[in-house]
């Protein structure tokens, strides 16, 4: 089958999220053909290029989400496409009828976004900080549910109306930045029933929200929606929600292509967490949160199946309106082969060393880990802590590393074993690839206990790698940690250095317990978190979805050699019943009706004609 893989800021680019997972998926399901539709997040990401693509990737279409109006016409290679996005098809501005349509559709969208949380009785700021987290849903009373349904309908009318306008007459960016859009936003924010924070928005807030909305809705203006692009695929697989899923929504709308959505971390939650760190005003954050909540609800409603990467993500999806019948947890698949030698060695590691492996950033809370290690040193003076990893990209990562180094120097002055020895610090900061830590397995081999001290975590990759290595672990109870550990390691509350220190001491002092927990952890990881189990799950989901999808093109019934394509006709079509698609058969289609079904149909027809009743 032909899969349209929809990505946002990741595969096939060499940097970004989910690129390794997507690459393993595409390479592992080599019996299928993949078309990639990728959104890029920065000029730097595009400059660093793509990963090497396998032969089953037949086509790649890309588009930027990072460009501004000034950049669109001048700096990007796809000038023809981007000119269409800014003006209209053929390089002209919208005419009077198109402007009227835009005003009507954008009014519906803006009204739903501005009143998204009015029925819940919550202030908009709560949604902006992740408080409500459900796009303004309220389960308190029939009136609230009815109002939410009306707002959902207005949102979808506006969204799909704008998409059809962009498809027929050119892109939306110029219209979204127009004075008309600002006036519509102002009227919607001032209307009765909107949230308190939204009502305080000013003209600069409207302009800022229109700019952000233009970036989010950029996929609506792309030229991907024709019979040769997304109309030619059998299934759309969005590797995240949000902007990546928008092309999948339109493919289903325009061509009836089924949509599969995979989320290892909920996009809506990520937006809530990032909103507090942005320089945007409170009204703009509230409007964006309401919009993303509405979009998440529509994505989950239209998806045939949603595959969360863990139970933590699944709970968020349910809060956003995803139906439980559509949800199937599929854990991310990770490569276990490079950890086999260490995992099967039976070595539980040095008795005096804690090791932390990962990307250094504030969410990892290495400050708490350093304070916990200070307590460990009081009980075990010979203990050591090795922090192995590079800082996250950007100034935030470098600042975090500098802060951690300064705190380590303050808490643990260099110590020497004798009067003539050189002092040494019990805390070391190391990079993978050096002489002492040449590869990732050596990093986990360096410690007897692997520690995770995060305050925010999605799916803890470093924890799974430690489990593959057969290492005992101490982790904070955040994200999917408890689900991953499953009783094979110690879990403590986040931001609690005392509890973290006690758990580390308990394992450092008990090698036999470390060995038992490490063996159990490795067995659990090999059962649940390998690439093989991930591929097997998606192989079955692909076949299930395509087996229920009707044939949309006559050419799909046979391949290039004239032989029937597998799953070109859904299994239900072989048996007569209410689920069988109505309408005339495609030209040239073979009558596959079973003989006994044809005879029964004839007898029933004759009986009804003679007696007027049902047989």
**Main beta sheet strand tally, sense and closure:** 6 strands, parallel
Beta strand %: 5-15%
What is the β-strand count? 12
Rg is 28 Å
Uncertain spans: 69-91, 118-145, 573-583, 585-615
What's the rounded overall pLDDT mean? Answer: 82
End-to-end gap: 41 Å
Structural class: alpha/beta
3D shape: globular
Strand order, main sheet: write it out: 3-2-1-4-5-6
Level of helix content? Answer: 40-55%
Q: Please work out how many helical segments DSSP would assign.
A: 25
Task: Give me the secondary-structure topology.
Blueprint (H helix, E strand, L loop, with lengths): L1 E7 L10 H10 L4 E8 L2 H5 L9 E8 L4 H4 L6 H8 L9 H19 L9 H5 L13 H28 L3 H4 L2 H12 L5 H4 L3 H14 L18 E4 L7 H10 L3 E5 L3 H9 L6 H21 L2 E4 L2 H9 L20 H4 L9 E5 L8 H14 L4 E5 L6 H17 L15 E4 L9 H6 L3 E4 L8 H8 L3 E5 L4 H5 L4 E3 L4 H12 L2 H18 L2 H18 L46 H17 L4
Parallel strand pairs: 1-2, 1-4, 2-3, 4-5, 5-6, 7-8, 7-10, 8-9, 10-11, 11-12
Describe the structure.
By secondary structure, the chain is of the alpha/beta class. Helix content is 46%, strand content 10%. It contains 25 helices and twelve strands. The chain has helices at residues 19-28, 43-47, 69-72, 79-86, 96-114, 124-128, 142-169, 173-176, 179-190, 196-199, 203-216, 246-255, 267-275, 282-302, 311-319, 340-343, 366-379, 395-411, 440-445, 461-468, 481-485, 497-508, 511-528, 531-548, 595-611, and strands at 2-8, 33-40, 57-64, 235-238, 259-263, 305-308, 353-357, 384-388, 427-430, 449-452, 472-476, 490-492. It has a six-stranded parallel β-sheet, with helices on both faces. A six-stranded parallel β-sheet has the order 9-8-7-10-11-12, with helices on both faces. β1, α1 and β2 form a beta-alpha-beta unit. The chain is globular, with a radius of gyration of 28 Å.
């Amino acid at each position: 089958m032909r899969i349209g893989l929809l990505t946002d800021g990741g595969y096939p680019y060499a940097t970004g999220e989910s690129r390794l997972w997507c690459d393993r998926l595409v390479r592992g399901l080599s019996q299928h053909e993949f078309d990639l539709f990728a959104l890029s997040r920065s000029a730097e990401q595009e400059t660093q290029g793509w990963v090497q693509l396998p032969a089953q990737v037949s086509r790649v279409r890309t588009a930027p989400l990072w460009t501004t109006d000034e950049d669109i016409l001048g700096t990007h290679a796809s000038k023809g496409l981007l000119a269409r996005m800014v003006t209209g098809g053929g390089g002209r501005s919208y005419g009077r009828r198109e402007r009227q349509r835009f005003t009507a559709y954008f009014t519906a969208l803006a009204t739903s976004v501005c009143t998204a949380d009015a029925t819940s009785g919550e202030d908009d700021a709560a949604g902006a900080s992740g408080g409500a987290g459900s796009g303004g849903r309220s389960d308190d009373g029939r009136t609230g549910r009815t109002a939410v349904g009306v707002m959902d309908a207005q949102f979808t009318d506006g969204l799909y109306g704008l998409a059809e306008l962009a498809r027929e007459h050119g892109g939306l960016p110029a219209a979204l930045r127009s004075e008309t859009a600002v006036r519509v936003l102002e009227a919607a924010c001032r209307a009765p029933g909107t949230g308190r924070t939204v009502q305080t928005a000013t003209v600069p807030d409207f302009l800022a929200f229109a700019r952000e909305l233009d970036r989010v809705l950029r996929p609506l203006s792309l030229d991907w929606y024709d019979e040769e692009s997304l109309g030619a695929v059998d299934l759309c697989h969005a590797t995240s929600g949000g902007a990546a899923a928008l092309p999948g929504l339109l493919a289903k709308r325009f061509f009836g292509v089924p949509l599969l959505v995979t989320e290892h971390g909920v996009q809506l939650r990520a937006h809530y967490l990032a909103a507090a760190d942005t320089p945007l005003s409170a009204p703009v954050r509230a409007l964006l949160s309401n919009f993303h909540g509405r979009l998440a609800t529509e994505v989950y409603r239209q998806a045939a199946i949603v595959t969360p990467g863990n139970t933590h993500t699944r709970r968020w999806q349910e809060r956003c309106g995803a139906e439980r019948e559509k949800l199937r947890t599929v854990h991310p698949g990770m490569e276990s082969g490079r950890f086999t030698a260490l995992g099967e060695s039976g070595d539980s590691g040095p008795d005096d060393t804690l090791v932390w492996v990962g990307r250094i950033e504030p969410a990892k809370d290495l400050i708490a880990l350093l304070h916990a290690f200070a307590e460990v040193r009081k009980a075990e003076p010979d203990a050591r802590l090795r922090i192995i990893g590079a800082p996250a990209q950007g100034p935030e990562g470098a600042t975090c590393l500098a802060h951690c180094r300064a705190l380590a120097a303050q808490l643990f002055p260099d110590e020497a074993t004798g009067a003539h020895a050189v002092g040494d610090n019990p805390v070391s900061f190391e990079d993978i690839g050096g002489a002492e830590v040449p590869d990732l397995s050596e990093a986990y081999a360096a410690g007897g206990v692997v520690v995770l001290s995060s305050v925010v975590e999605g799916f803890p990759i470093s924890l799974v790698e430690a489990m593959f290595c057969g290492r005992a672990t101490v982790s904070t109870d955040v994200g999917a940690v408890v689900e991953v550990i499953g009783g094979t390691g110690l879990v403590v509350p986040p931001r609690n250095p005392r509890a973290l220190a006690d758990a580390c001491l308990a394992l450092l002092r008990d090698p036999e317990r470390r060995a038992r927990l490490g063996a159990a952890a490795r067995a659990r990881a090999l059962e649940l978190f390998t690439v093989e189990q991930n591929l097997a799950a998606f192989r079955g989901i692909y076949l299930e979805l395509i087996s229920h999808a009707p044939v949309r093109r006559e050419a799909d019934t046979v391949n290039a050699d004239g032989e029937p394509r597998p799953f070109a006709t859904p299994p239900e079509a072989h048996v007569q019943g209410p689920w069988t698609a109505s309408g005339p058969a495609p030209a040239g289609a073979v009558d596959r009706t079973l003989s006994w079904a044809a005879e029964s149909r004839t007898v029933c027809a004759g009986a009804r004609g003679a007696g007027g009743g049902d047989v």
